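Class, study these two lines:
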Amino acid sequence: MGYYSAINPMKHELIAKRSQPKTAKRERKWRMNLLGAVLLCAVLLVSAGVLRKAVRPVCLNYCESHAVKQLRREYQGEKRENRRLKSDIALYRSRSGAVAGARELGYVRPGEVPVSVEEPKPQR
């Protein structure tokens, strides 16, 4: 034993007590870091849920506007088709239109001879 240990036997106890708080401080610091990480994860999860709820109406509005545009395009196409069909109805109600429509379908008047013209196949 050295000189100091004979004079001050409590010195070793003080050194031992000082080392314990360092370990406790490390453990407390580790626990605080873990608690901080858990709280950070909880805050991120909550904020993600809030953000999702905030963005949802915007996404729904975008999808609805896209669907409305698609329906308007379809409606315009159907409107064009309806106009074409109405003009066809008006055409086929007239005498000359009915004859033209019948000839397109291959009908002929009594006494007429149907003639079918076919193009010759090209020779190779």
Summary: Helices lie at 3-7, 11-93, 95-104. Residues 7-104 form one domain. The chain has a mean pLDDT of 84.
